[in-house]
Amino acid sequence: MQYDWKEWMLPVNGRPVKVYIHEIILSYSRKKYYCSSLSITTADIIRAIASAIEYFGGIAEEIVIDNPRQMVIAHNNNGVIRYNDEFLRFCGLYGIDTVPCRPYRARTKGKVERPFITFRSIFSRDLR
What is the largest CA-CA distance in the chain? Predict the structure, then answer.
């Protein structure tokens, strides 16, 4: 599966509010799960992925991710990866292998990036 998030500024009671949209997509079937949060902490990401696992009814063997500090502390060019302890414990609990994209190479998880382009066009049109 692949995971990503995007932040959106949405009007709530006439005031802009930053909302984070989480997307988890199964790489083979392309089945998608979306949820939102008002912050983007490691706990928010773990809740989103755990909710997706419940929604999908099972666990994928691996998860393809970017390299945000909530999940990856360091990803050196020589391939050494240091994970956020809380995120690594979560993945270990579920037996999920993590596959972070190479730094500055997010396009390797294109399946999860494409729907956000659609979101952007829908939200932009509705907010005008």
Answer: 49
Residue 83 belongs to what domain range?
2-124
Burial class (CB in 10 A: 0-12, 13-18, 19+), 7: exposed
Domains: count for the chain:
1
Length of the chain: 128
pLDDT tens series, the chain, 128 aa: 999 999 989 888 999 999 999 999 998 888 999 999 999 999 999 999 999 999 999 999 999 988 888 988 888 877 788 889 999 999 999 999 998 886 665 555 555 555 555 555 545 544 44
CATH number for the domain that contains residue 104: 3.30.420.10
Q: Are 61 and 32 in contact (CB under 8 A)?
A: no
The pTM score is 0.79
Q: How far apart are CA 18 and CA 98, in angstroms?
A: 28
